[in-house]
Design goal:
By secondary structure, the chain is an all-alpha fold. It has a domain at about 1-40. The protein contains three helices and no strands. It has helices at about 5-15, 20-35, 45-50. It starts with a helix and ends in a 29-residue tail after the last helix.
Length: about 80
């Protein structure tokens, strides 16, 4: 028996209040398939080749020297 036939038999046996959940889930799976999402057991290119390690942004991020200095706007409250 094919999976489609087996699936249809299972859907036919479901109570009617669950049919909308099945419908939503099928739409979600179609969206995933259409947009190229991969399943957990299928490695994606980003995971296997494009891994970023610690220190990959070194030199790209900085904090101003006066970062912890009080702001001029709050001088009256200090």
């Amino acid at each position: 028996m094919t999976q489609q036939v087996e699936l249809m038999k299972k859907i036919d046996k479901l109570p009617s209040q669950y049919l909308s959940e099945v419908f939503d889930f099928v739409e979600y799976l179609q969206y995933k398939a259409h947009n190229g999402y991969k399943t957990l057991d299928t490695p994606t290119k980003e995971k296997s080749e494009g891994r970023r390690g610690f220190g990959c942004a070194k030199g790209q991020i900085w904090i101003a020297d006066d970062f912890n200095e009080p702001l001029e706007d709050f001088k009256d409250y200090m």
